Amino acid sequence: MSRVATMLIVEDEPETASLLETYFRAQGYQVLTAASGEEALSMAQAHPVDLIVLDIRLPDIDGFEVFRQLRAHRRTREVPVIFLTEKRERESRLTGLEMGAHDYIPKPFSLQELRARVQNILRRSRAEPAIDGLTGLPGRPLILESLREQLEQSDWGALLIGLEGLEAFGERYGFVARDDAIRAVGLLLTGINHENGDAFFLGHIGEGWFILIGSRHQVNAVAPQAIARLKSALPYFYPLQDVEGKPPDLPALRIATARVQGTEGPFPDPEAVIRRLLERREALPR
C-alpha cells in the first residue's frame, strides 16, 4: 500500500485555503495549511511534506522569498512547489519557473486541473534519485546497478553497515542531529574507502544503512576496520553533557552489520541481495 502524500497549502485568503484543504482531503491527501510565509517555513521544517502549493502574494514575505528559503535548507530543498499566481502576472510566472518551481497555475483555477498537476508532479518526484540527497552517495538505483554487475561473477562480497536506534535518537535530539549522524557515517565510510584506494562501491540504501560492494576478500578485510572506526565515533554523535552525564534514558545507537558473498548465489536479482542483507543484520555488542 502506497504512503499517503502530504501537501502544504500556503494561501492567505481563508476561503481559497479552506476550499483547497477540503478538496484535497477528499482526494485522500494529508493537508497542512499556512496563511503566511513565515508560518509556511516553520511548518515545512516541522513536518515532512511531499508538495507545496504556494501563493505568491502573502501578507509578510512573498512566495518567491519563501521559495528561496525552502531551497536553502536541506530538508526542504527538493520538495516540489506549485506557484499560485494571478492570471495577469505573466512576469511572476516566468520568475517562478526560472527559480526552479515545478509548475504554476493562475487564479482563478480549476480544481481538477490543479489535482492533475499535483498527481503528475508527485509521480515524477517519487522516482528514486540516483544520488542520495543527504549523504551525496549513490542511492538505491546505482546500488542495484552495481550489484547487477556483480551477479555475473562469484568472487564478490557485500557489507551492510549502519546504525540502529536512530528513531529514538531523533526523537530525543531532533531530525537535524539524526541527519548529522547519518551524514557522519557516510563520511567515515567514504574516508575508509579512500584509504583503501577506492576499491569498493559505496552506496547509501536509506536512513542509517550503507553498503560496500567489492571483491569477497576485500570486503571481509575492510569490515573489522569499518566497525572499529564507527564504534569509536559513536560518542561524538551525542551532546557532550550526555556523554559525560550518561542519563539513564540515553537513546542508544548501535552498530549493525550483515554480509553476503557471491558464492552463496545464484541470486535471481539485485533486490534479493539487499533483502538477504537486511534479513541478516545484527546489532553488535556495545
Automatic annotation (TrEMBL):
<feature type="domain" description="Response regulatory">
    <location>
        <begin position="6"/>
        <end position="122"/>
    </location>
</feature>
<dbReference type="InterPro" id="IPR011006">
    <property type="entry name" value="CheY-like_superfamily"/>
</dbReference>
<keyword id="KW-0902">Two-component regulatory system</keyword>
<protein>
    <submittedName>
        <fullName>Alkaline phosphatase synthesis transcriptional regulatory protein PhoP</fullName>
    </submittedName>
</protein>
<feature type="modified residue" description="4-aspartylphosphate">
    <location>
        <position position="55"/>
    </location>
</feature>
<dbReference type="GO" id="GO:0000156">
    <property type="term" value="F:phosphorelay response regulator activity"/>
</dbReference>
<dbReference type="GO" id="GO:0032993">
    <property type="term" value="C:protein-DNA complex"/>
</dbReference>
<keyword id="KW-0804">Transcription</keyword>
<keyword id="KW-0597">Phosphoprotein</keyword>
<dbReference type="GO" id="GO:0005829">
    <property type="term" value="C:cytosol"/>
</dbReference>
<dbReference type="Pfam" id="PF00072">
    <property type="entry name" value="Response_reg"/>
</dbReference>
<dbReference type="GO" id="GO:0006355">
    <property type="term" value="P:regulation of DNA-templated transcription"/>
</dbReference>
<dbReference type="InterPro" id="IPR001789">
    <property type="entry name" value="Sig_transdc_resp-reg_receiver"/>
</dbReference>
<dbReference type="InterPro" id="IPR043128">
    <property type="entry name" value="Rev_trsase/Diguanyl_cyclase"/>
</dbReference>
<dbReference type="GO" id="GO:0000976">
    <property type="term" value="F:transcription cis-regulatory region binding"/>
</dbReference>
<keyword id="KW-0238">DNA-binding</keyword>
<keyword id="KW-0805">Transcription regulation</keyword>
<dbReference type="InterPro" id="IPR029787">
    <property type="entry name" value="Nucleotide_cyclase"/>
</dbReference>
<dbReference type="InterPro" id="IPR039420">
    <property type="entry name" value="WalR-like"/>
</dbReference>
